[in-house]
Amino acid sequence: MSGGRGTAGDRPHRWGALRDSLRSGELGSLPVLLSLASIWLIFASLDEKFLSPRNLSNLGVDIVGTGLIAVGVVFVLLVGEIDLSVGSVSGLAAAVFAVLNVQHGMAEVPAVLVAVALGAAIGAVHGFFFAKVGVPAFVVTLAGLLGWNGLMLYVLGSSGTVNLDDEGLVAMLTSHYFNDVAVAYGVAALGTAGYFLVSFRDARRRIAAGVPARTGGGIAVRTGALGAVTFAAAFVLNRFQGLPLALLIFITVLVGLDHVLRRTTYGRMIFAIGGGVEAARRAGLGVVRVRISVFMVSSTMAAVGGLFLASRVTSASQASGGGNLLMNTIAAAVIGGTSLFGGRGRVWSALLGVLVIQSIASGVALLGIQAAVQYMITGGVLLVAVVIDALSRRAQKAHGRV
User: Fold this and answer.
1) At residue 238, does pLDDT exceed 70?
2) Helix, strand, coil: what percent of the chain each, to 5?
3) Residue 45 Cα to chain centre, angstroms
4) Where are the annotated coiled coils located (predicted)?
């Protein structure tokens, strides 16, 4: 690959480019990675069980339900809007599945499809009132938060709780592990190799088009870092029960939606609308259609996440979708690096953000500290993330990048 090998003389240039990028507000995932590392070091120093294979494996499963919902929230935030209904939608989807499957005898697969389709339909309703009627997204989804929560209570009926089959398909989503060590290592190898091939191909295309591209050395460093993380994760997971099915599904969803956002016309339209609605409209983009679609993605992912949350406790109840779920999903997206101002973020933000939040919850639980402390720590981390986002945007404006 032409230009693929950096020389010693290139290194000062690369370091200077990195320094200029940071000064101009292009922080990427650096703040959340530093936060996550600090949290893990602090809790590991206070309790050695925090980094045990059992706790890390449980952490890998615990992040999935909330993380999937946060992925949908990322799509809405990218166009500069908010969805306050995701918690209620997740609870409603779990309730509909449980009632159809347990009380009405519908097979699990059709019941799952109905629950997910309901989520998509709810998103279409929210998107219609926002994009076509002109009702602010905050108001539309706040109404949804109340309305869909009420519908969930109605669906569950007087019993209030429906227990799922412990050996059913949905229950297996969070209880099944691939015990063969080759599975975890195979997924790590496949992910690392796939990243290298995609990065190498993209670099060649950019060079052929005459635009800046990563050097071969830069790709190798990134691939090596990814490989180190994934194989270390595989090693730790194999020391407990192996690779959790839930975590594998979550990573697969992230990879697929990352491709949609970064490598399709639809994804580029989302970023364009987040960068400026009027400019996108004048450029001939289907603003209304895209706005409706992101709310559909958000509610669909909320329904899927709700099924994983129900799987974790093998039940759907009046508490489903409640508590601090809504705040955690929005916080996960923002802490992970998705901008509240729209136009900047990635689906991987959901993974990083929910890892931070769930790591705090796990550490607090291990130390026997009151849950109130967990909320205060999470709130502080969220505030720092928003401040960094605002300062980053200000720096970008100063450098003409916004």
Assistant:
1) yes
2) 75, 0, 20
3) 28
4) none
